[in-house]
Design goal:
Layout: H1 3-19, E1 29-33, H2 39-47, E2 52-55, H3 58-67, E3 73-76, H4 85-91, E4 94-98, H5 101-113, E5 118-124, H6 140-147, E6 153-160, H7 168-187, E7 194-200, H8 207-212, E8 217-220, H9 222-225
Parallel strand pairs: 1-2, 1-8, 2-3, 3-4, 4-5, 5-6, 6-7
Helix pairs in contact: 4-5
The structure holds pyridoxal-5'-phosphate.
Length: about 230
C-alpha cells in the first residue's frame, strides 16, 4: 500500500470515529510519527498533505527538521533529557512529552534565551505502568499550577499512551481517565500560560477508540509509514 493510500485509510477511520462524537476529520490533528522513517518518506507524507510530524528523539529529528524545507510543524513526543532541552526548544514547535517540573523549568529557561514561547503538553502515565514516563494522574493539578508560573511556556493540553497490549476495556478506561483529567484542567481558573486545547491520545492500534473517548490529537507511525524494523 502506498503512503497516500494509508493516509486515506487513516482519514476514513478518523472520520468514522469522530462522527460518533459529533465531530469530523478536521477536528482531529494527525501527528505523523517518523521515528525510523527516512527524510524522503517524511517529504512524501508532507506532499500528501500531512502537516504535523512527531519524533521521539531530538538527535534523530534534527537532520530531518533542518533538511525538509519549508519545514512542516514538528512535535517532540519522546522523553526529553536535560542536556537536549536547548536543541529541542530551537527545533520543535511543540513538546508533548513534559514529564517533570524540572524539564519544564529548563524549557522555560531556554525559551526565554531564544525569546520564544514553547507550547507544551503534560505527559500523564494513565496506565500506571512503571516503565512509562509521565506524571501520575493525581499529581497533574499541582504540577500544572507550578508549570503555569514559568515564563515562556504555554501548557496546551495533555498527552498519554494507552497501556501496551491491553484489552479494549482497559484501553478505553485509560483514555476515559485522561479525558476526565483534561476536563478538570479545563475548569481551572488559571488565566496565564494555559490553554487546554489538545488531548493527545491514540496511536496506530488504538486511535479510533481514543477518538471515540474524546481525543483530538492522534500520533500515528506504523499506520502511515508501515512497520518499523
Ligand atoms: C512511536 C510512538 C507513536 C506511534 O506509534 P505507532 O504504533 O507506530 O502508531 C506515538 N506516540 C509515541 C509517544 C510514540 O513513541
Amino acid at each position: 500500500m502506498s503512503l497516500r493510500e494509508r493516509l486515506d485509510l487513516v482519514h476514513g477511520k478518523i472520520e468514522g470515529a469522530a462522527r460518533k462524537t459529533g465531530r469530523s476529520l478536521k477536528d482531529i490533528t494527525v501527528v505523523a510519527v517518523t521515528k525510523g522513517v527516512s527524510a524522503d518518506r517524511v517529504t512524501e507524507a508532507k506532499e500528501a498533505g500531512v502537516a504535523v510530524f512527531g519524533e521521539n528523539k531530538v538527535q534523530e529529528a534534527e537532520p530531518k527538521i533542518l533538511n525538509i524545507q519549508p519545514p512542516p510543524e514538528w512535535h517532540l513526543i519522546g522523553h526529553l533529557q536535560s542536556n537536549k532541552v536547548k536543541q529541542a526548544v530551537s527545533l520543535f514547535q511543540m513538546i508533548q512529552s513534559v514529564d517533570s517540573v524540572r524539564v519544564a523549568k529548563e524549557i522555560s529557561k531556554e525559551s526565554q534565551a531564544l525569546s520564544r514561547c514553547m507550547p507544551v503538553l503534560l505527559e500523564v502515565n494513565v496506565s500506571g505502568e512503571p516503565k512509562k514516563y509521565g506524571f501520575k494522574p493525581e499529581e497533574v493539578y499541582t504540577v500544572l499550577e507550578e508549570i503555569v508560573k514559568l515564563p515562556n511556556v504555554k501548557t496546551m493540553g495533555l498527552m498519554g499512551i494507552g497501556p501496551l497490549g491491553a484489552s479494549e476495556q482497559v484501553l478505553r478506561d485509560s483514555f476515559k481517565k485522561l479525558k476526565n483529567i483534561f476536563g478538570v484542567c479545563k475548569t481551572l481558573k488559571i488565566r496565564e500560560n494555559l490553554e487546554m486545547k489538545y488531548l493527545s491520545m491514540g496511536m496506530s492500534d488504538d486511535f479510533e477508540m481514543a477518538i471515540e473517548e474524546g481525543s483530538n490529537m492522534i500520533r500515528i507511525g506504523r499506520g502511515l509509514f508501515g512497520g518499523r524494523t
